Amino acid sequence: MSNQQRRNASEIRVAFKTMTVQELPYKSALAVFEHLWDEANRAAVEVMGTSLMAEYVALLKEMEWWFQAEAKKAQS
Fold first, then answer.
1. CA angle centred on 61, ends 57 and 65, rounded to 5°
2. Among 66, 74, 44, 71, which residue's Cα sits nearest to residue 56?
3. Region 11-23: what's the mean pLDDT?
4. What is the DSSP letter of 50?
5. Nearest CA among 34, 46, 33 for reference residue 6
6. CB of 40 within 8 A of CB of 59?
7. Each residue of 25-65: pLDDT tens digit?
8. Could you tell me if 67 and 40 are in contact, meaning their C-beta atoms sit under 8 angstroms apart?
9. Residue 63 in contact with residue 39, Cβ under 8 Å?
10. Domain of life, per the record (predicted)?
11. Which helix (H) or strand (E) holds 19?
């Protein structure tokens, strides 16, 4: 994605939150998660060294917490 096409952290967060409330099968949710994770990670790298990076890092941490919680549920 070029800088003109890169979604900001808030836009990716909305997509992530939407995904978390949908009743998707586990594997489908993980596929969407992986796509959003990769998008947020790429964007964070693109803005590295700027004030925007903190927003993406916070989003990635939030996504990681969700992933860990879902992984624990799947193991139960």
1. 170
2. 44
3. 96
4. S
5. 46
6. yes
7. 988 999 999 999 999 999 999 999 999 999 999 999 999 99
8. no
9. no
10. Bacteria
11. helix 9-21
